[in-house]
Amino acid sequence: MGKMKVHVIPHSHWDREWYFTSSRSTMYLVKHIKEVIETLEQQDEYHFYLMDAQSSLVEDYLRYCPEDRDRLVALISEKRFITGPWYTQTDQLVISQESIVRNLLYGTRIASDLGHSMAVGYVPDAFGQGGNMPQIYKEFGISKFLFWRGVADNRLKQTEFIWQGNDGTQMLAEQIPFGYYYGANIPENDMELSAYLEAQIGALEEKASTRNIYFPNGLDQAPVRKNLPELVAKFNQLDTSREYQLASPETFFAELEKEVADLPVISGELTEGKHSRLHKSIFSTRADLKQANNEIENILSNVLEPILSVSYSLGNRYPHHEVAEIWKLMFENAAHDSIGGCNSDTTNRDVAHRYKLARDLTNSLLDLNMRLISEKITQKHPFQFTIFNPLPYANSGVIRMSAYIPEADFTLEDTAGNALDYTILEKTDLTEYVLNQHIYLNPSKAIYMPEKVFLAEILVGVKDIPALGYDTIYLNLERKEAPHYSKETSETSIENEYYQINLAENNTLTILDKTTNRVYKDQMIFEENGDDGDSYNYSPPRNDFRVTSKEALLEKVKADISDVEEAITISFKLQVPYNLIERAAGKSTREMLIQTRISLRKEDELIRFDVKVDNQVLSHRLCVTFATEIASRFSTADQLFGVVQRPVRLPEMDVWEEEGWQEAPISMEPMQSFVSLHDEEHGVAVITEGVREYEIIGANYDTIRLTLFRTFSHMGKTDLLYRPGRASGESIVETPDAQLLGEIRATFAVTLFETTFDEAHIARKAKEYLSPMPVYQFSDFLNGRLIYVYRDEEKNLATKYSLELPNMDNAIMSAVKKAEDSNGIVIRFFNPYLYNEIDIPAIFQGKEIHLDEKKSTEQRTTLKHAKVQSYLFEK
């Protein structure tokens, strides 16, 4: 057997922001990359430098030093300056699947355009690895995986293994067992250096199963060590039993592949925090920022891009650059510290500002493209509304829309003149403001000007809105009918075709499933307890005091009944401790007001919840629970392009303290949009628009607990119950913003089913819940400063339209967008079931592409568990 080969990889792990802001980081980044360029150019023996696999860092640098582009292109093309495949070092558990795909899409393209994108999935510091990432990596031509956090020696005794994704895709993986900073502090005294090498490399040798050792030289914002080639030469002089060489991840794997054989296979997500902290409860840190992220991700991929595709098919420009700007703002916030919220308050304000920009751009781009279509539809009535359907099949249901309406009586009707059921939820008189905004661009044109104008929120029942298309409805002033409002009562019960819901005496809900007469009691219990944790980890206080809504003071109940919705609004006050000191003493001196609107829409299988909390207390957590009476060993939740079943309790909880885990292996888990408990006959699923964190609790593990928010006082704290020892982050950094004082909103839904999980189509219900049908109002009197003045357009579009892309029944459409490199449309589907396979229609054959939008030679006839497949339909 030959010598051990030690691959010394010079690198810097570059957080774009953390306890410091991105502005500060960028200024130091410019200095750093310029030094790296100079060092590589001046020293041929300095073969490689890994710049954290984030092509956004190169973009940042070239923004300030565009004169260095050619120098960087030369070094990247020679594979000496290593960048890509990521745009930013993204989280993999708390953000959407499309965010991860687009991160790699933009990251690999930017790096490739500069000369080379590293074909290694390099993840030095993300807090866990998504279970379907092997498939995603392979779709980008990446077959090697290099990481630190997520695998314990309970499962893996060596650094090399085969990682198998949930769909079955396998890739060669190498763990950096002691962290990316392991080889950062190299002494230069010969006597110290010999002992250092024996200790540091010896520890890596014990874990290696081949003669190849990955030895990272770098740390957070590490400066380039200019004498590293000389140090490596000295390593070889002092340690003749090993061979040391400067390397890159790609050259390391090229050597490793020659020797690996019979490697162990590790399957699924990597979320074990024995040796490296995973911060599992980071999913609920800074709930306000998590909600902003989830809201924008949903509208961006579920609504905006489909409607941009419809607009493009009708002859309008597809705004690739504008969309890229929005995604890049989201990627900046998707980096593991940024999306984690484990930052200083100043940095989190930057994160919030980027969300504001992304939201504003998204909404404006959506509004513009709906308008480009609506203004070309023949105008039948002065109040005309275009309803857009972003789903790949015709959609019906009750939608919510904002509308400027008159005081006069009217009916709402479809293009055939059929009256539509609706109810006005609220309206505000804006007559003077709206009419004074009007501009007579063409004074010769007679238009309808209402005497009074109200901005109203309206629920409307619509039917068969075309797939990936639109339909038109009208407010008809000629068919006079008094406006429809809901009837307010003091009833404590509501119902629709599927459910009857009653408020019980203990402030919980009792839900009757009318299809089977099954009764679910003790639903919607709010749980409030202390949080002694920090920005990284929820941790219960050593002396906790729990309060539930069963003990609350019921303040007010009202029901609103209409033709399209029945809703009940419940307000109650919880007496809760003000802070951890009061909590430890068992005192409750403050009131926390919780107002919840529970609604049942006509012919809708979802029970919708809109929660409003007036939070005026410190360091605590609020959750809501739903009892299922289904004792289960596993929960089922959606993950990246599929579903995953997780144990409701990890057995490591019995031994973690004895084994010295870095943090408790709690079963607080992430989801994309839903979690379910079920057996072979029935089940309950909770779908969230907000915080994507849940836990299964109860003596029989039969209750779903959804986290609404948690608050805390510091970025880092020491000696937590769930995370003993040192602080994560900076313990001196206080985070008063993280107490989230003021109003907090949370929206989610529950659905009950009397079938197997696969037959209940929970993913489809979640997709519809998170893909609202937006509406654009075209009325001449609105033309002006209110919406930007427009000129008259030729009315040449039909009142109803569909893009007419083929659908794959039972699969979930993850994305539809214009292709990056052609005039075609990309549409992406995945299998959302535990067991069912999906037949792929013949029309999709030969149109397969990879996630990187390059042509695929593999043709599938079925979509198996957790598989994703993209298709290109040329225009």
What descriptors fit this protein?
alpha+beta; 29% strand
Percent in strands: 25-35%
Count the strands? Answer: 43
Uncertain residue ranges = none
Sheet with the most strands, sense and barrel status: 10 strands, antiparallel
Strand order of the largest sheet: 17-23-24-25-26-35-32-31-28-29
Number of helices: 17
Mean pLDDT: 96
Q: What would you call the structural class?
A: alpha+beta
Task: Explain how this protein is built.
This protein is an alpha+beta fold. The chain is built from 17 helices and 43 strands. The strands form nine sheets. It has a ten-stranded antiparallel sheet with strand order 17-23-24-25-26-35-32-31-28-29, with helices on one face. β38 and β39 form a beta hairpin. α4 (97-113) packs across α10 (320-334) and α10 (320-334) packs antiparallel against α12. It starts with a strand and ends with a strand. The model has no long low-confidence stretch (mean pLDDT 96).
Describe how the helices and strands are arranged.
Layout lengths: L3 E7 L11 H21 L6 E2 L4 H10 L4 H9 L3 E2 L14 H17 L6 E4 L9 H7 L4 E4 L12 E5 L5 E6 L14 H18 L4 E6 L10 H11 L3 E5 L2 H9 L7 E3 L19 H27 L6 H15 L1 H5 L4 H30 L8 E7 L5 E11 L5 E4 L7 E8 L1 H7 L16 E12 L3 E8 L10 E3 L3 E3 L3 E5 L5 E5 L4 E13 L16 E2 L4 E9 L3 E12 L3 H6 L4 E12 L5 E9 L4 E8 L6 E6 L2 E6 L8 H4 L9 E2 L3 E5 L4 E6 L4 E5 L5 E8 L31 E12 L3 H4 L1 H8 L5 E4 L22 E2 L9 E7 L6 E6 L7 E2 L8 E2 L12 E2 L4 E6 L2
Parallel strand pairs: 1-8, 1-9, 2-3, 4-5, 5-7, 6-10
Antiparallel strand pairs: 6-7, 11-16, 11-36, 12-15, 13-16, 14-15, 16-37, 17-23, 18-19, 19-20, 20-21, 21-22, 21-27, 23-24, 24-25, 25-26, 26-35, 27-34, 28-29, 28-31, 30-33, 31-32, 32-35, 33-34, 38-39, 39-43, 40-42, 41-43
Helix pairs in contact: 1-2, 4-10, 9-10, 9-12, 10-12
